Amino acid sequence: MSVAEELGSRLRVERERQGMSVQKAADELRLDVWVIDAFESGDFTRAGPPVYAKGHLKKYASLLGMGGEPIAAALESLNVSGPEPMLPESGTRIAARSRFGGRRFAWRPIATLAVLGAVIVGVLWWKPWRLRIGHGAPSLPAAVARPHAPSPASPPPQSGGLGVPMRGASTAVIDQPAPVLQAAPPAAPPPATAAAAAPASLQLRFSKKSWVDVRDAAGKLLYDGIDRPATTRTITGQAPFAVILGDATGVAVSIGGHLLVLSAAYVNGNVGRFDVDADGGLRPYARPLP
């Protein structure tokens, strides 16, 4: 028996001794079942590049309580290595092909000249510049009226007995004050936005060892880990929660003090996947699996 097969046999014997199925071991490590089969059959090359195979193998050994360092030392003795990447020979030039008949087109110098030309034309046709060069100082618009000041030497208008100005009498121009515009009242402030919904509390009581993944309504990860038997974990956040349980048969789920009953629609084998509202409503897991 080779070293790889002996190592895989030790892993399989220890897993069966603990009464753990291949599916449960894969769920605990978040791996596919075929990866566990590859480890236990001694075919480590199926698990991917050596770096990933060594890391997953250490986690598998730690899950079984065998210790990661002896397993890693045994794996090092196997000298598992993947194919070396093919690199081009030294001195080989890789020619970049252009879209225009295989020859590069000088876009950058042409674009730079176009930008400079646009800037020069804009400066020459800038209105204040043109006023200073061609027309001198700008004159005041005709619509702007200068205030009229009555001459102190002008005699008061003469009128007849009925208040009609006499012929030949000078008439004074009386300026009327400009109307004062009233400022519009300030707009009313917008109504205050509704307060955010109160967070909900999800409680998990473990009678068996199980892996847990819980996310809030925005998809934010609230908890990801493995809990031991006879422990309780409370997770607070915005509902609805998206929950994955590695062994749903050993976890009691409650929210807001209400115990939830997980039917077969939410449990596949031992793995439970479901969404739960703040009022305890259950729905199938509707998000991409992590």
Polypeptide structure, described:
The chain is α+β, with helices and mostly antiparallel strands and 290 residues long. Among the domains are: 3-78, 434 Repressor (Amino-terminal Domain) (Orthogonal Bundle), CATH 1.10.260; 200-284. It contains seven helices and ten strands. Strands 2, 3, 5, 8, 9 and 10 form a six-stranded antiparallel β-sheet that branches. The two termini are 38 Å apart. Mean pLDDT is 74; it is low at 80-103, 140-145, 160-166 and 191-195.
Global morphology: flat
Instruction: Flag low-confidence runs.
Output: 80-103, 140-145, 160-166, 191-195
Roughly how many Å is the radius of gyration? 43 Å
Gap between N and C termini, in Å? 38 Å
Number of helices: 7
- Say how many strands there are: 10
How confident is the prediction overall: mean pLDDT? Answer: 74
Please state the oligomeric state of the protein chains shown.
single chain
> Helicity, in percent?
25-40%
Structural class: alpha+beta
Q: In percent, how much strand structure appears in the residues?
A: 15-25%
Helix-strand pattern: HHHHHHHEEEEEEEEEE
Largest sheet: 6 strands, antiparallel
